[in-house]
Amino acid sequence: MRTLVITGASDGIGAAAAAQLAGPDRRLVLVGRNPDKTHAVAERVGADAAFVADFAELAQVRELAARITERYPRIDVLANNAGGAFAGPAITGDGVELTFQVNHLAPFLLTGLLRPVFTPQTAVVTTASIAARLFSRFDVTDLDTSRHYGATKAYGNAKLANILFTRGLHARGVRAVAFHPGNVATAFARKTTSPLKLLYRTALNRFLIPAEEGGARLAFFAESDAWRSGQYYGRPGRVDRLPRRASDPALVEQLWAGSERLLAR
């Protein structure tokens, strides 16, 4: 019996992947921010458990990790799927810009706290985005873009951080992969001031793929071994071109150290 933890599972890609991964040989552990939606998805797919946590509060992430490790002695897959594009700059109660915290710092923290129940075969699957290549303007002296903020840049930087984090996990002996789910018709950009909102709120959204297709990509990486650890995939079976700086091991370590400093505040 394999145990799979999926964050951002209350709707969109996470909910679609949960439905596709459900089966008698799997324990699905779903995490979402909205209690009603998260529990509804869990009931619909027959999940083993549903937990509610808002990644805008790191105390809730720490409590989530404690509850999961108390209940499950082993995790086979951790799908870091929660995220979104937000208006800002918005500084959380933890002193971190919201987009960076929800998309990167909270999953970084959760993954670290869950590592005691990882096995050598555990896979960490992170939902990144092509935005990492298109919009990132990464500056390690302004890691969360709180000083020089732009909504689109903040999202691109956070998605680049997902890829750098994946490479850092691989360097530390954890099987990890990041992937672009496609341009999926979800509500993730509804609260942003970024031009991305236009794509998701206008007639242009007819060019988006359904959540089920994005969920299928997540499900593929969660259940298959046909991928290379430490890589970023544009779609299953195709390693995608990295943003230029993402191949720099020094930047990986700078992100790692910077993330730990933010968590130590």
From TrEMBL:
Name this polypeptide is given: SDR family NAD(P)-dependent oxidoreductase
Pfam families: adh_short
GO molecular function term, any single one: oxidoreductase activity
PANTHER family named among the record's database cross-references: PHOSPHATIDYLINOSITOL-GLYCAN BIOSYNTHESIS CLASS F PROTEIN, PHOSPHATIDYLINOSITOL-GLYCAN BIOSYNTHESIS CLASS F PROTEIN-RELATED
The organism of origin for this protein: Cellulomonas denverensis
Keywords carried by this UniProt record: Oxidoreductase
